[in-house]
Protein backbone atom coordinates (compact mmCIF):
# COMPACT_ATOMS: atom_id res chain seq x y z
CA UNK A 1 0.00 0.00 0.00
CA UNK A 2 1.32 3.43 -0.91
CA UNK A 3 0.18 6.95 -0.29
CA UNK A 4 0.50 7.78 -3.99
CA UNK A 5 -3.25 8.17 -4.37
CA UNK A 6 -3.27 11.27 -2.16
CA UNK A 7 -0.38 12.73 -4.13
CA UNK A 8 -2.26 11.97 -7.35
CA UNK A 9 -5.47 13.57 -6.05
CA UNK A 10 -3.52 16.67 -5.08
CA UNK A 11 -1.75 16.83 -8.46
CA UNK A 12 -5.14 16.66 -10.19
CA UNK A 13 -6.59 19.43 -8.05
CA UNK A 14 -9.13 17.06 -6.51
CA UNK A 15 -8.75 17.96 -2.83
CA UNK A 16 -10.60 21.09 -1.76
CA UNK A 17 -10.99 20.23 1.96
CA UNK A 18 -9.82 17.45 4.24
CA UNK A 19 -10.07 16.83 7.96
CA UNK A 20 -6.47 15.67 8.53
CA UNK A 21 -4.64 14.72 5.37
CA UNK A 22 -1.47 13.60 7.16
CA UNK A 23 -3.45 11.27 9.43
CA UNK A 24 -5.36 9.88 6.46
CA UNK A 25 -2.11 9.30 4.58
CA UNK A 26 -0.68 7.42 7.56
CA UNK A 27 -3.79 5.27 7.86
CA UNK A 28 -3.61 4.40 4.17
CA UNK A 29 0.07 3.53 4.55
CA UNK A 30 -0.83 1.09 7.32
CA UNK A 31 -3.13 -0.92 5.04
CA UNK A 32 -6.20 -0.71 2.81
CA UNK A 33 -9.01 1.42 4.20
CA UNK A 34 -12.76 1.25 3.56
CA UNK A 35 -14.40 4.46 2.37
CA UNK A 36 -17.76 5.56 1.04
CA UNK A 37 -19.49 8.12 -1.13
CA UNK A 38 -23.24 8.67 -1.26
CA UNK A 39 -25.71 9.56 -4.01
CA UNK A 40 -29.26 10.71 -3.38
CA UNK A 41 -31.88 9.63 -5.95
CA UNK A 42 -33.39 13.09 -6.48
CA UNK A 43 -33.54 12.49 -10.26
CA UNK A 44 -33.76 9.40 -12.49
CA UNK A 45 -30.07 9.68 -13.42
CA UNK A 46 -26.75 10.86 -12.08
CA UNK A 47 -25.13 13.86 -13.74
CA UNK A 48 -21.63 15.09 -14.45
CA UNK A 49 -21.19 16.47 -10.91
CA UNK A 50 -21.86 12.99 -9.53
CA UNK A 51 -19.42 11.56 -12.07
CA UNK A 52 -16.52 13.34 -10.39
CA UNK A 53 -17.39 11.58 -7.13
CA UNK A 54 -17.67 8.18 -8.83
CA UNK A 55 -14.30 8.63 -10.52
CA UNK A 56 -12.69 9.73 -7.25
CA UNK A 57 -14.02 6.52 -5.67
CA UNK A 58 -12.55 4.59 -8.60
CA UNK A 59 -9.13 6.22 -8.10
CA UNK A 60 -9.10 5.15 -4.46
CA UNK A 61 -10.11 1.61 -5.41
CA UNK A 62 -7.32 1.39 -8.00
CA UNK A 63 -4.93 2.31 -5.18
CA UNK A 64 -6.08 -0.76 -3.25
CA UNK A 65 -8.78 0.67 -0.99
CA UNK A 66 -12.32 -0.67 -0.69
CA UNK A 67 -15.32 1.43 -1.81
CA UNK A 68 -18.87 1.44 -0.51
CA UNK A 69 -21.30 3.24 -2.79
CA UNK A 70 -24.37 4.43 -0.92
CA UNK A 71 -27.62 5.09 -2.76
CA UNK A 72 -29.84 7.13 -0.48
CA UNK A 73 -33.21 5.45 -0.40
CA UNK A 74 -34.05 7.39 2.77
CA UNK A 75 -32.13 10.65 2.28
CA UNK A 76 -33.54 10.78 -1.27
CA UNK A 77 -37.00 10.99 0.28
CA UNK A 78 -35.93 14.13 2.18
CA UNK A 79 -33.46 16.01 -0.02
CA UNK A 80 -30.42 18.01 0.98
CA UNK A 81 -31.30 21.67 1.62
CA UNK A 82 -30.74 23.99 -1.34
CA UNK A 83 -29.95 27.71 -1.22
CA UNK A 84 -32.82 28.41 -3.61
CA UNK A 85 -35.62 26.99 -1.49
CA UNK A 86 -37.54 23.94 -0.33
CA UNK A 87 -37.30 20.81 -2.48
CA UNK A 88 -40.35 19.15 -3.95
CA UNK A 89 -40.70 15.73 -2.35
CA UNK A 90 -40.98 12.79 -4.73
CA UNK A 91 -43.19 9.81 -3.99
CA UNK A 92 -41.75 6.74 -2.30
CA UNK A 93 -42.45 4.70 -5.43
CA UNK A 94 -40.56 7.19 -7.62
CA UNK A 95 -37.58 7.30 -5.28
CA UNK A 96 -37.47 3.49 -5.12
CA UNK A 97 -37.38 3.34 -8.92
CA UNK A 98 -34.60 5.93 -9.05
CA UNK A 99 -32.63 4.00 -6.42
CA UNK A 100 -32.56 1.00 -8.75
CA UNK A 101 -31.52 3.10 -11.74
CA UNK A 102 -28.73 4.88 -9.88
CA UNK A 103 -27.50 1.65 -8.29
CA UNK A 104 -27.04 0.27 -11.81
CA UNK A 105 -25.27 3.44 -12.95
CA UNK A 106 -22.69 3.60 -10.15
CA UNK A 107 -22.02 -0.12 -10.38
CA UNK A 108 -20.50 0.29 -13.85
CA UNK A 109 -17.57 2.35 -12.62
CA UNK A 110 -16.10 0.14 -9.88
CA UNK A 111 -14.95 -3.46 -9.56
CA UNK A 112 -16.90 -5.89 -7.37
CA UNK A 113 -14.44 -8.77 -7.22
CA UNK A 114 -11.18 -9.22 -5.34
CA UNK A 115 -10.04 -8.26 -1.88
CA UNK A 116 -11.16 -4.64 -2.29
CA UNK A 117 -14.35 -5.29 -4.24
CA UNK A 118 -17.04 -2.63 -4.03
CA UNK A 119 -20.34 -2.90 -2.15
CA UNK A 120 -23.51 -0.95 -2.90
CA UNK A 121 -25.63 -0.09 0.15
CA UNK A 122 -28.98 1.64 0.70
CA UNK A 123 -29.46 3.76 3.82
CA UNK A 124 -33.16 2.87 3.90
CA UNK A 125 -32.02 -0.50 5.32
CA UNK A 126 -31.08 1.03 8.68
CA UNK A 127 -33.23 4.17 8.67
CA UNK A 128 -36.62 2.57 8.04
CA UNK A 129 -36.60 0.20 11.05
CA UNK A 130 -35.53 2.96 13.45
CA UNK A 131 -38.13 4.59 15.69
CA UNK A 132 -38.38 8.36 16.03
CA UNK A 133 -37.56 8.11 19.73
CA UNK A 134 -34.42 6.08 19.08
CA UNK A 135 -33.36 8.50 16.34
CA UNK A 136 -33.75 11.51 18.65
CA UNK A 137 -32.04 9.79 21.58
CA UNK A 138 -29.16 8.13 19.75
CA UNK A 139 -28.48 10.66 16.97
CA UNK A 140 -30.24 13.95 17.71
CA UNK A 141 -28.64 14.39 21.12
CA UNK A 142 -25.20 14.78 19.48
CA UNK A 143 -26.20 17.81 17.34
CA UNK A 144 -26.19 21.26 19.02
CA UNK A 145 -28.90 23.36 17.35
CA UNK A 146 -26.77 26.52 17.47
CA UNK A 147 -24.14 24.83 15.27
CA UNK A 148 -26.77 23.58 12.85
CA UNK A 149 -28.19 27.10 12.56
CA UNK A 150 -24.71 28.40 11.69
CA UNK A 151 -24.46 26.22 8.56
CA UNK A 152 -24.38 28.45 5.47
CA UNK A 153 -27.30 26.81 3.68
CA UNK A 154 -29.47 26.91 6.81
CA UNK A 155 -28.54 30.48 7.68
CA UNK A 156 -29.41 31.60 4.14
CA UNK A 157 -32.83 29.97 4.41
CA UNK A 158 -33.83 31.18 7.88
CA UNK A 159 -35.54 34.32 6.61
CA UNK A 160 -37.38 32.69 3.71
CA UNK A 161 -38.06 29.56 5.74
CA UNK A 162 -36.72 26.02 5.99
CA UNK A 163 -38.72 22.97 7.05
CA UNK A 164 -37.69 20.78 9.95
CA UNK A 165 -37.42 17.99 7.38
CA UNK A 166 -34.62 19.64 5.42
CA UNK A 167 -33.09 21.14 8.57
CA UNK A 168 -32.65 17.57 9.85
CA UNK A 169 -30.98 16.23 6.69
CA UNK A 170 -27.50 16.50 8.21
CA UNK A 171 -28.54 14.11 10.99
CA UNK A 172 -29.52 11.43 8.47
CA UNK A 173 -26.34 11.72 6.40
CA UNK A 174 -24.19 11.78 9.54
CA UNK A 175 -25.97 8.66 10.80
CA UNK A 176 -25.09 6.95 7.50
CA UNK A 177 -21.39 7.46 8.22
CA UNK A 178 -21.83 6.16 11.79
CA UNK A 179 -23.70 3.05 10.60
CA UNK A 180 -21.16 2.28 7.88
CA UNK A 181 -18.31 2.83 10.33
CA UNK A 182 -19.87 0.30 12.71
CA UNK A 183 -21.01 -2.21 10.08
CA UNK A 184 -18.14 -2.08 7.58
CA UNK A 185 -15.27 -0.26 9.28
CA UNK A 186 -15.58 2.80 7.03
CA UNK A 187 -13.05 5.49 8.00
CA UNK A 188 -13.34 7.95 5.10
CA UNK A 189 -16.26 9.70 3.43
CA UNK A 190 -15.74 11.64 0.20
CA UNK A 191 -18.03 14.14 -1.49
CA UNK A 192 -18.23 17.53 -3.14
CA UNK A 193 -17.15 20.71 -1.37
CA UNK A 194 -20.81 21.78 -1.17
CA UNK A 195 -21.29 18.74 1.10
CA UNK A 196 -18.51 19.67 3.51
CA UNK A 197 -20.86 20.47 6.39
CA UNK A 198 -22.57 17.08 6.03
CA UNK A 199 -19.22 15.26 5.75
CA UNK A 200 -17.80 16.83 8.89
CA UNK A 201 -21.12 16.28 10.67
CA UNK A 202 -20.58 12.55 10.26
CA UNK A 203 -16.98 12.79 11.45
CA UNK A 204 -18.12 14.65 14.58
CA UNK A 205 -21.00 12.24 15.25
CA UNK A 206 -18.63 9.24 15.21
CA UNK A 207 -16.27 11.04 17.59
CA UNK A 208 -19.09 11.87 19.98
CA UNK A 209 -20.94 8.54 19.76
CA UNK A 210 -18.06 6.04 19.54
CA UNK A 211 -14.95 8.05 20.38
CA UNK A 212 -13.31 7.13 17.06
CA UNK A 213 -11.38 9.36 14.69
CA UNK A 214 -12.41 9.13 11.03
CA UNK A 215 -11.82 11.25 7.96
CA UNK A 216 -13.58 13.37 5.34
CA UNK A 217 -12.30 14.58 1.99
CA UNK A 218 -14.07 16.96 -0.38
CA UNK A 219 -13.43 17.60 -4.05
CA UNK A 220 -13.72 21.14 -5.39
CA UNK A 221 -16.73 22.59 -7.13
CA UNK A 222 -16.12 22.25 -10.86
CA UNK A 223 -16.67 25.59 -12.56
CA UNK A 224 -16.57 27.25 -15.95
CA UNK A 225 -14.14 30.07 -16.70
CA UNK A 226 -16.67 32.67 -15.50
CA UNK A 227 -16.96 30.94 -12.12
CA UNK A 228 -20.43 29.45 -12.69
CA UNK A 229 -21.07 25.81 -11.90
CA UNK A 230 -20.00 23.36 -14.58
CA UNK A 231 -22.43 20.68 -15.74
CA UNK A 232 -25.12 22.69 -17.50
CA UNK A 233 -25.45 23.22 -21.25
CA UNK A 234 -27.92 25.29 -23.28
CA UNK A 235 -30.06 22.17 -23.54
CA UNK A 236 -29.86 21.41 -19.82
CA UNK A 237 -28.00 19.17 -17.37
CA UNK A 238 -25.23 16.85 -18.55
CA UNK A 239 -26.85 13.52 -17.61
CA UNK A 240 -25.11 10.13 -17.62
CA UNK A 241 -28.24 8.27 -18.77
CA UNK A 242 -28.34 7.99 -22.59
CA UNK A 243 -32.14 8.21 -22.49
CA UNK A 244 -31.89 11.69 -20.95
CA UNK A 245 -28.88 12.88 -22.94
CA UNK A 246 -27.70 11.15 -26.10
CA UNK A 247 -24.07 9.98 -26.24
CA UNK A 248 -23.56 12.43 -29.12
CA UNK A 249 -24.82 15.36 -27.01
CA UNK A 250 -22.68 14.14 -24.09
CA UNK A 251 -19.64 14.07 -26.41
CA UNK A 252 -20.42 17.56 -27.67
CA UNK A 253 -20.66 18.96 -24.13
CA UNK A 254 -16.98 18.08 -23.60
CA UNK A 255 -15.88 19.17 -27.09
CA UNK A 256 -17.15 22.64 -26.15
CA UNK A 257 -14.94 22.87 -23.04
CA UNK A 258 -13.24 26.25 -22.71
CA UNK A 259 -9.54 26.47 -23.53
CA UNK A 260 -8.78 27.85 -20.08
CA UNK A 261 -10.49 24.91 -18.34
CA UNK A 262 -9.87 21.87 -20.55
CA UNK A 263 -6.58 20.97 -18.85
CA UNK A 264 -8.27 21.06 -15.46
CA UNK A 265 -11.08 18.81 -16.71
CA UNK A 266 -8.60 16.35 -18.23
CA UNK A 267 -6.85 15.95 -14.89
CA UNK A 268 -10.03 15.68 -12.84
CA UNK A 269 -12.28 13.57 -15.10
CA UNK A 270 -9.88 11.23 -16.91
CA UNK A 271 -7.38 8.60 -15.85
CA UNK A 272 -4.66 9.95 -18.14
CA UNK A 273 -1.37 10.41 -16.26
CA UNK A 274 -0.84 14.01 -15.16
CA UNK A 275 2.36 14.14 -17.22
CA UNK A 276 0.43 13.13 -20.35
CA UNK A 277 -2.15 15.83 -19.70
CA UNK A 278 0.62 18.43 -19.31
CA UNK A 279 2.14 17.34 -22.64
CA UNK A 280 -1.26 17.48 -24.32
CA UNK A 281 -1.86 20.97 -22.98
CA UNK A 282 1.55 22.12 -24.22
CA UNK A 283 0.52 20.91 -27.69
CA UNK A 284 -2.87 22.59 -27.28
CA UNK A 285 -1.28 25.94 -26.47
CA UNK A 286 0.75 25.75 -29.68
CA UNK A 287 -2.30 24.94 -31.84
CA UNK A 288 -5.49 25.77 -29.89
CA UNK A 289 -7.54 25.82 -33.10
CA UNK A 290 -7.02 22.08 -33.54
CA UNK A 291 -8.84 21.51 -30.21
CA UNK A 292 -6.83 18.33 -29.63
CA UNK A 293 -7.29 18.63 -25.85
CA UNK A 294 -11.07 18.95 -26.15
CA UNK A 295 -11.29 16.03 -28.56
CA UNK A 296 -9.23 13.85 -26.23
CA UNK A 297 -11.37 14.90 -23.25
CA UNK A 298 -14.60 14.14 -25.11
CA UNK A 299 -13.32 10.77 -26.32
CA UNK A 300 -12.07 9.67 -22.88
CA UNK A 301 -15.26 10.65 -21.05
CA UNK A 302 -17.71 9.36 -23.65
CA UNK A 303 -15.90 6.01 -23.74
CA UNK A 304 -15.91 5.84 -19.96
CA UNK A 305 -19.64 6.59 -19.65
CA UNK A 306 -21.13 5.18 -22.88
CA UNK A 307 -18.55 2.83 -24.37
CA UNK A 308 -16.12 2.89 -27.26
CA UNK A 309 -18.68 2.26 -30.01
CA UNK A 310 -20.75 5.30 -29.01
CA UNK A 311 -17.58 7.41 -28.95
CA UNK A 312 -16.69 6.31 -32.46
CA UNK A 313 -20.23 7.09 -33.64
CA UNK A 314 -20.07 10.55 -32.06
CA UNK A 315 -16.69 11.25 -33.65
CA UNK A 316 -17.97 10.10 -37.05
CA UNK A 317 -21.06 12.29 -36.69
CA UNK A 318 -19.01 15.33 -35.69
CA UNK A 319 -16.88 14.95 -38.81
CA UNK A 320 -19.67 14.00 -41.21
CA UNK A 321 -21.94 16.91 -40.29
CA UNK A 322 -19.21 19.34 -41.30
CA UNK A 323 -18.27 17.60 -44.54
CA UNK A 324 -15.37 15.50 -43.25
CA UNK A 325 -17.11 12.14 -43.53
CA UNK A 326 -19.91 10.22 -45.23
CA UNK A 327 -23.31 11.06 -43.80
CA UNK A 328 -24.86 7.83 -45.08
CA UNK A 329 -22.46 5.80 -42.94
CA UNK A 330 -23.96 7.19 -39.72
CA UNK A 331 -26.51 5.04 -37.84
CA UNK A 332 -29.93 6.69 -37.80
CA UNK A 333 -29.91 6.98 -34.01
CA UNK A 334 -26.61 8.90 -34.10
CA UNK A 335 -27.66 11.12 -37.00
CA UNK A 336 -31.01 11.89 -35.37
CA UNK A 337 -29.40 12.71 -32.01
CA UNK A 338 -26.82 14.94 -33.67
CA UNK A 339 -29.39 16.85 -35.71
CA UNK A 340 -31.82 17.22 -32.82
CA UNK A 341 -28.94 18.62 -30.75
CA UNK A 342 -28.23 21.07 -33.59
CA UNK A 343 -31.85 22.28 -33.65
CA UNK A 344 -33.42 20.16 -36.40
CA UNK A 345 -37.20 20.31 -36.81
CA UNK A 346 -39.90 18.32 -38.61
CA UNK A 347 -41.18 19.71 -41.91
CA UNK A 348 -43.67 18.64 -44.58
CA UNK A 349 -42.62 17.15 -47.97
CA UNK A 350 -43.42 20.38 -49.85
CA UNK A 351 -41.06 22.49 -47.70
CA UNK A 352 -38.52 24.38 -49.82
CA UNK A 353 -34.84 24.81 -49.02
CA UNK A 354 -35.46 28.45 -48.12
CA UNK A 355 -38.20 27.54 -45.66
CA UNK A 356 -36.07 24.68 -44.26
CA UNK A 357 -33.16 27.05 -43.61
CA UNK A 358 -35.50 29.32 -41.69
CA UNK A 359 -37.24 26.52 -39.78
CA UNK A 360 -33.94 25.00 -38.68
CA UNK A 361 -32.63 28.34 -37.47
CA UNK A 362 -29.90 28.71 -40.07
CA UNK A 363 -31.48 31.80 -41.67
CA UNK A 364 -33.50 34.62 -40.14
CA UNK A 365 -35.59 35.43 -43.19
CA UNK A 366 -36.42 34.35 -46.74
CA UNK A 367 -34.13 37.02 -48.15
CA UNK A 368 -31.23 35.88 -45.95
CA UNK A 369 -31.84 32.26 -46.97
CA UNK A 370 -31.93 33.12 -50.69
CA UNK A 371 -28.78 35.20 -50.31
CA UNK A 372 -26.96 32.24 -48.66
CA UNK A 373 -27.91 30.00 -51.59
CA UNK A 374 -26.95 32.64 -54.19
CA UNK A 375 -23.56 33.19 -52.53
CA UNK A 376 -22.80 29.44 -52.55
CA UNK A 377 -22.92 29.18 -48.77
CA UNK A 378 -25.86 26.76 -48.38
CA UNK A 379 -25.33 23.00 -48.34
CA UNK A 380 -27.70 20.04 -48.46
CA UNK A 381 -26.12 16.82 -47.16
CA UNK A 382 -22.69 18.48 -47.58
CA UNK A 383 -23.30 19.32 -51.26
CA UNK A 384 -23.55 22.97 -52.31
CA UNK A 385 -27.15 23.91 -53.11
CA UNK A 386 -28.08 26.15 -56.03
CA UNK A 387 -31.90 26.04 -56.07
CA UNK A 388 -33.56 27.93 -53.21
CA UNK A 389 -36.96 26.51 -54.09
CA UNK A 390 -35.98 22.84 -54.17
CA UNK A 391 -37.82 20.34 -51.99
CA UNK A 392 -36.43 17.13 -50.50
CA UNK A 393 -37.21 13.62 -51.67
CA UNK A 394 -35.77 10.33 -52.85
CA UNK A 395 -32.05 9.80 -52.28
CA UNK A 396 -31.71 13.12 -50.49
CA UNK A 397 -33.58 11.72 -47.50
CA UNK A 398 -31.09 10.02 -45.19
CA UNK A 399 -32.60 6.98 -43.47
CA UNK A 400 -35.84 7.81 -45.24
CA UNK A 401 -36.43 11.24 -43.78
CA UNK A 402 -33.43 13.27 -42.54
CA UNK A 403 -31.69 16.11 -44.37
CA UNK A 404 -28.51 17.79 -43.12
CA UNK A 405 -28.37 21.53 -43.77
CA UNK A 406 -25.30 23.69 -43.42
CA UNK A 407 -24.66 27.40 -43.88
CA UNK A 408 -21.02 28.27 -44.39
CA UNK A 409 -18.37 26.13 -42.70
CA UNK A 410 -19.64 26.05 -39.12
CA UNK A 411 -23.43 26.44 -38.88
CA UNK A 412 -25.15 23.04 -39.07
CA UNK A 413 -28.72 21.94 -38.48
CA UNK A 414 -31.27 19.90 -40.41
CA UNK A 415 -34.83 18.81 -40.92
CA UNK A 416 -36.81 15.61 -40.86
CA UNK A 417 -39.33 15.33 -43.67
CA UNK A 418 -42.52 13.72 -42.32
Automatic annotation (TrEMBL):
It is found in: Cytoplasm. Its EC number is 6.1.1.1. Signal peptide: none annotated. SUPFAM superfamilies: Alpha-L RNA-binding motif, Nucleotidylyl transferase. Keywords: Aminoacyl-tRNA synthetase, ATP-binding, Cytoplasm, Ligase, Nucleotide-binding, Protein biosynthesis, RNA-binding. It is an enzyme of class 6 (ligase). ATP binds at residue 232. PROSITE patterns: AA_TRNA_LIGASE_I, S4. It holds the Pfam family SYY_C-terminal. Catalyzes the attachment of tyrosine to tRNA(Tyr) in a two-step reaction: tyrosine is first activated by ATP to form Tyr-AMP and then transferred to the acceptor end of tRNA(Tyr). Homodimer. Belongs to the class-I aminoacyl-tRNA synthetase family. TyrS type 1 subfamily. This is Tyrosine--tRNA ligase. It comes from Aeromicrobium duanguangcaii.
Amino acid sequence: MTNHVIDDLQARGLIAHSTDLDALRAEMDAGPITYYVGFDPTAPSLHVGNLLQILTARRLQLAGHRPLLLVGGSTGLIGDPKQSGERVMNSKETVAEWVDRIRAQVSRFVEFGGDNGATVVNNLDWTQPMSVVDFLRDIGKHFPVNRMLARDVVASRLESGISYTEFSYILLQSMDYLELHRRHGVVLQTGGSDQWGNLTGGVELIRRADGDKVHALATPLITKADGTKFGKTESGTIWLDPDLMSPYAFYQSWIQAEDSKVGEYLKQFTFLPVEEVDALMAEHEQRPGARAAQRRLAAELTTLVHGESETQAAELASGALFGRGELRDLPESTLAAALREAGAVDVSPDTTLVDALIASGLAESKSAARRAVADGGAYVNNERADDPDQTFSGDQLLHGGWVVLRKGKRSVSGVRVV
